[in-house]
Batch of 3 targets.
Target 1
Amino acid sequence: MKNEILRIGEEALRELKELDGLEALQELKVKVLGKKGSLTALLRQMGSLAPEERPIMGQVVNEMRSRLEQAWEERSAELDVLSLQKRLATERIDITLPGVRVTRGHHHPVTQVVEEIEDIFLGMGFQIAEGPEIETDYYNFEALNLPKEHPAREMQDSFYITEEILLRTHTSPVQIRTMEKLCPALPVKIIAPGTVYRNDDDATHSPMFHQVEGLVLDRGIRLSDLKGILLNFSRQMFGESREIRLRPSFFPFTEPSAEVDISCMLCGGAGCRLCKGTGWIEVLGSGMVHPKVIKMGGYNPSEVTGFAFGMGVERIAMLKFGIEDMRLLFDNDLRFLQQF
Ligand code: PHE
């Protein structure tokens, strides 16, 4: 029996040297010292020994067991170090390598201009309103004093979805929607930026483009208020030395109506290629809100008056950045967009 104990012990010690991981170490421990382990099995047989032999065998077993335990401790510490070294070797990273650079984008020039326009009008106490891009014939035309068969409808080539539903051709329907929502509150003082659609496509027209609508409604609003607000806007947008002029025009939803020109930002008004020699650049349509439109919005036109305007954002971006073809804004060519 003694030999048996020594044989099991020595073999375990040899295996211990060869095994290469903490798992294998644990397995070996179970195999020898575990409940069903080989040494444990021998211990069970102690009962069948002669009484005088028992203490001797007991000592042999205990010695072997403590040798094994010590060896286990040592091997386990060694394996710990080995596994750490292995991880350090394989998981090593070179912190001196240059990192993966995340390039940072910026807003599209059209978005930049919309935000700049918003900032300027927010600074003058306006609020921002929105409306749907898929609009009904009623809001896009009827309520803006453009009945069916009205020749002015042809000023805007529309994308119809059904006879009553279309992609909005301008942001003016937001005038009606806002009045309906706010009525009878006063003043109404909003801008409505957004995307609009017309069947048009050349260097200065895109089938999808952006407008910013403006609407001010209160008791006693006058044409001079329109002019003052737009002069303030023009100077903040294009420089303090800008002047504006109002040219008589026509829109069914304003009366009187005016096109607003800004003194040329390139030549200052002397006349150049940009302003085609006139010294003025047309930037937006405007006018005093037509009494019928005020009424459509729910207000009483004999008590309140107001003005409205609508500007094309791409046009303003082109003037501001010196872009000659509107389509460049929508080609999504980074070489172009990164310049702004
Ligand atoms: N909705 C007009 C257009 O798209 C612009 C406009 C808005 C004119 C408000 C007057 C008042 O052409």
Target 2
Amino acid sequence: MELKITCIPGDGIGPEIVAEAKKVLDAVAAKYGHVIHYTDILMGGASIDAHGVPLTQEAVEAAKAADAVLMGSIGGDASTSPWYRLPPNLRPEAGLLAIRKELNLFANLRPAVLYDELVEACPLKAEIAAAGFDMMIMRELTGGLYFGERRTTEENGVRTAVDTLVYNEDEIRRIAVKGFEIARKRRGKVISVDKANVLDSSRLWRQVVEEVAKDYPEVTLQHMLVDNCAMQLVKDPAQFDVILTENMFGDILSDEASMVTGSIGMLASASLNDTKFGLYEPSHGSAPDIAGRDLANPIATVLSAAMMLRYSFDLDAEADAVEQAVKQVLKEGYRTSDIMSDGCRQVGCRQMGDLLAERI
Ligand code: NAD
């Protein structure tokens, strides 16, 4: 198969971690007989330095011409970097918001996995952590409270602020379809999270999700109120497979779930549109404090590349091989500094990439 991948190395540790993910993808291509065509584009601070803007139209076109985009991370240290003395629409993060909009990425996927070998990093009680967990949070990314009308007014000296939470059934249906499709590739269980005891938007959400569920009889559907979900994530995270939810609930729950894993350098993410196209990136930032020192953990980016193989290219065996390589390297005791513990062997970013590629 021919894979056209546009890479955005970005800023800080971005170029280092993307280089290692490419190393692993190249090992996959060699083993399984694929050909990968890479195109690199600039975004964020790197694009500001070269072109004066965080994202050029040429870069957008190069991203659109690919089957998928693999990104490192963008941005710098806000207190010292000259990028943050620019107006907000010219700062690094504006490039990321613009590309998400240009590519119509409405579905955000964040897996939260607790690896047996990293169980000590989990802040939950030992008996809960011992059960392990492997969940996927599917968050609607382009609707809801963050995109509704908002205003602040003042009358008779009293200030009033209004935000509007709007969803139409098409917006709900397309993310629900993605959620069920992904559950079908996993353990076949969707927990849809809402606040249907209070909000109209949640009652519509629940109805539409139930309609979509009829097309997926092999997937089980359960509803959960968001306040209960926030509790269950720390009480019994093993019960979750796919969590399907709207924008603001997903924003909060995905951060909660990722903190419960305890290892920021291990967390992948993907943002998808209604085709097979997706943008894949680690959940962490550009870590300017360790950039250029071969200290970054490339595993989140490597696992993002595995998600790309699975969801944009339907290469499930290849994605399994990458995830297996990660487990194997952890089992053999290799760690980057961020996940280092007693008795393990510390390696740098490049060596971690080599070890993973060798185990494909
Ligand atoms: P961060 O995630 O970059 O770093 C937080 C801490 O975690 C740091 O101590 C860092 O060294 C460590 N860390 C992060 N990733 C690591 C990895 N792979 N290996 C080892 N250690 C790792 O968060 P921050 O410091 O708040 O943000 C730095 C910059 O990244 C900011 O400009 C921010 O806006 C940007 N950012 C970008 C994205 C993105 O591109 N999607 C996301 C979040 C933050």
Target 3
Amino acid sequence: MDNVIILRYSEIHLKGKNRMFFENILRRNILEKLNVFKLNAQFSYGRYVISDYNPDDEDGIIAALRTVFGLFSLSIATRTTADPDDIANAATALCSGKTGTFRVTVNRADKTLPYTSVELARKTGGAILDRYPQLTVDLHEPNFTVYVDVREKNTAYVYSQSILCAGGMPVGSAGKGLTLLSGGIDSPVSTYMMAKRGLKLTALHFWSYPYTSIEARDKVLELAKLLAVYTGKTEVIVIPFTKMQEAIHKYAESNYMITLVRRAMMRIAEKIAEKKGCGCIINGEDLGQVASQTLESITVTNSVIKKLPVFRPLIGYDKIDIINIAQKIGTYETSIKPFEDCCTVFLPDSPVTKPTLRRCELNENKIENYDELINEAVANAETFTIS
Ligand code: ATP
Ligand code: MG
């Protein structure tokens, strides 16, 4: 008998001929997390099993695994032989200190065994009742359940609790994406959400030094570091955006400032995405939240993107829901640190809420060397690797 951790993944996405592909990526991501504990994970009949771990590390291992997308749940289990007496011993040990009602649920993957699931459940339940007369059986609404999972090769797992993990798809299984990461509350959440759907992300940040400070940039790197718990090692590409913003400020109508800034951001983003082999762009836009996120604003910013889809996972969320997720994933406290983002540089008193494509283009035509400014920003990007 020994203690093991059983990891389960969501079956739904892993069926069919792509199954191996998902399993391999998930395994790689799990092993990355287990590296610090010098542990391996054995693949065993549709689940992973971690054994021979230091009991002092148990909480740390569980916390680390709960950030791996693609894992559905985990259990700390006793591993025994498939012998009913061994199983009964493990189950009884598990009930120490428990009160109230229980049931035993048996899953018997090995159909060659000389007992049925019902017989094994009865025997195990009987052993528990003999040992703890204060407990009673309730098959319908028990206070706790003892699960017995009998697998192939004379192995059984006995446990009573499942801990929910992060769910989603393994990072890397859905391809690569470029996420626009500002220092605000929203974009770390949109980044988290798309990593959860299996994208391997590169982050892009627009920085207008000295209008925005070194601290503002470092805050974004700090957010990327917090997110790396979920996203894995991540490149953060910082775009020097000052010249472009100054040019827009100098030549364009002031109420179009934000709209034009966002169009320039998207143009640069698409070029970087292509360079980095990213198949999509992600931002934290949320319909109606601010002037730059009205339907008309999103239309004119989106229209500069020629090839890639732009994902806006927060588009239908209320701010309070976004804040709740930010708090849950641990980015909120950093996001609310008061450093300016470049979107607030040269902020007009009344930004246009219904920009038109014609006026955007008229304004952009007035900006000297517009294309060169875009290319220069791309060429002078600085890359930080965060893990
Ligand atoms: P947040 O700052 O959390 O992203 P917000 O409500 O302030 O949210 P905006 O400033 O309008 O949103 O920006 C919308 C989206 O554009 C952001 O979610 C982010 O994806 C992107 N974005 C804005 N500023 C930057 C920046 N400086 N660098 C990279 N992306 C940015
Ligand atoms: Mg912002």
